[in-house]
């Protein structure tokens, strides 16, 4: 597959559009005068959204629950259903000599006019730690460079079971979490608002086809169960994490919020952008072996805007450097016999490149808070302050088109027991 698939939706043919016909991401929308319980499934083409419930009602696409306020029914229908719907949508919106059909025209409305909801019901959220540079950087700060990578790191994708209940869609305000912390000079811990609030730039893999209890899968099989990918910000309270994390890993430091982008970009749209995982330092055991490239070349960036300042790009990096692919993480997750569900969300781990301008978290950019970053507006930051807005951006660059993810945005509000600061 190469080159733009032209659509009769003119804006989709612009080389800078995030949603050319090649993309066809899936999300959930409601109109300006509608309530959230009228939300239904949609795709995006150019500057328009396409109401999939109306196309389903008109019999123009196969029925996979597109009138529901979540993609789960469609995601659980499996890869043949995904391909069937992608093919039907491509036929309806491709530029051709014949006139577009009336129901296809009627299903369009400007993307700016609709509310985008959480695209699927998140069954469970697991977060991994598969970026080698991030693991080395954070490990160096917490344990010193000689002990930075734990002995298991090069053999298994390390992860923890997070919270599905606090996964929110882009645009949802995030309150600064409260928690227990203990500074190095304190004799006893105290309870209060997090003082070292951080971000983590990650991709999230969304499980479509479930597995059964006791069913193990190969990495190749795992790849076929993944429906698509989102941008994911794994908000992190570093001071809470430092105190609580040994020996069972992050708990409240990560439980308060995770933001995802509103569109799930399907694996089919990302197919031309597959790339190999990095060279292995130790051979992986057979249950983690892959036979084809399973990483993706996706350009990522982070921007930050203070309450009274303009946006600054604070990092540019790429998903391609991850040591473990999402398919390897899913195969590993199921390898004990753990059942995976439709709607399971697997965070990749923080995506950091080799130097400061490519790091995926503020604790790395400010090196533990010792070396502040300077924003374009002149303000400096070590961690996130109240009123700051953080946005993650991502796209895969094709020949004359791009596969965009939209953005993944959150603004930090004061802690729940605090009054807004001036
Ligand atoms: Mn994380």
CATH topology of the largest domain, by name, is: Fumarylacetoacetate hydrolase, domain 2
Indicate the overall shape.
globular
Number of helices, where a helix is a run of at least 4 consecutive DSSP H or I residues: 11
CATH class type of the largest domain:
Alpha Beta
Proportion of strand residues: 25-35%
Average pLDDT, to the nearest integer?
Answer: 96
Biggest sheet descriptor: 8 strands, mixed
The hetero compounds bound to this protein are:
manganese (II) ion
Radius of gyration: 21 Å
* Topology, number of strands: 26
Residue share in helices?
Answer: 10-25%
The H-level CATH homologous superfamily of the largest domain, spelled out, is Fumarylacetoacetase-like, C-terminal domain
Cα distance, first to last residue? 53 Å
What structural category arises from helix and sheet content?
alpha+beta
Number of domains: 2
Architecture (CATH level 2) name of the largest domain: Alpha-Beta Complex
């Amino acid at each position: 597959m190469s080159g733009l698939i032209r659509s009769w939706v003119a804006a989709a043919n612009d080389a800078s559009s995030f949603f050319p016909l090649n993309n066809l991401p899936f999300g959930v929308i409601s109109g300006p005068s509608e309530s959230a319980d009228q939300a239904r499934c949609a795709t995006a083409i150019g500057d328009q959204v396409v109401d999939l419930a109306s196309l389903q009602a008109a019999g123009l696409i196969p029925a996979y629950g597109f009138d529901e306020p979540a993609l789960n029914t469609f995601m659980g229908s499996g890869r043949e259903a995904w391909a069937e719907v992608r093919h039907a949508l491509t036929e309806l919106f491709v530029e051709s000599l014949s006139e577009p059909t009336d129901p296809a025209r009627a299903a369009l409305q400007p993307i700016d006019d609709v509310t985008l909801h959480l695209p699927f019901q998140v069954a469970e959220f697991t977060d991994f730690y598969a970026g080698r540079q991030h693991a080395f950087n954070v490990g160096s700060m917490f344990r010193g460079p000689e002990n930075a990578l734990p002995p298991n790191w090069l053999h298994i994708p390390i992860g923890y079971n997070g919270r599905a209940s606090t996964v929110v869609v882009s645009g949802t305000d995030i309150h600064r979490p409260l928690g227990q912390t203990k500074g190095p000079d304190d004799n006893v811990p105290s309870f209060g608002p997090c003082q070292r609030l951080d971000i983590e730039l990650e991709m999230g893999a969304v499980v479509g086809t479930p597995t059964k209890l006791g069913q193990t899968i190969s990495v190749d099989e795992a790849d076929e169960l993944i429906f698509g990918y989102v941008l994911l910000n794994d908000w992190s309270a570093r001071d809470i994490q430092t105190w609580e994390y040994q020996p069972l890993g992050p708990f409240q430091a990560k439980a308060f919020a995770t933001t995802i982008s509103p569109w799930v970009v399907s694996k089919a749209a990302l197919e031309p952008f597959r790339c190999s995982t990095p060279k292995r330092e130790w051979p992986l055991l057979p249950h983690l072996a892959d036979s084809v490239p399973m990483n993706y070349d996706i350009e990522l960036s982070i921007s930050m805007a203070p309450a009274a300042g303009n946006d600054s790009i604070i990092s540019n990096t790429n998903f391609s450097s991850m040591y473990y692919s999402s398919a390897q993480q899913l195969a590993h997750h199921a390898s004990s016999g753990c059942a995976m569900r439709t709607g399971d969300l697997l965070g990749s781990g923080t995506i950091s490149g080799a130097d400061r301008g490519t790091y995926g978290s503020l604790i790395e950019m400010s090196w533990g808070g010792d070396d502040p970053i300077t924003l374009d507006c002149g303000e400096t930051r070590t961690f996130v302050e109240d009123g700051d807005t953080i946005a993650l951006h991502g796209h895969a660059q094709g020949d004359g088109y791009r596969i965009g993810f939209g953005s993944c945005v959150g603004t930090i509000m004061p802690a729940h027991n605090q009054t807004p600061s001036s």
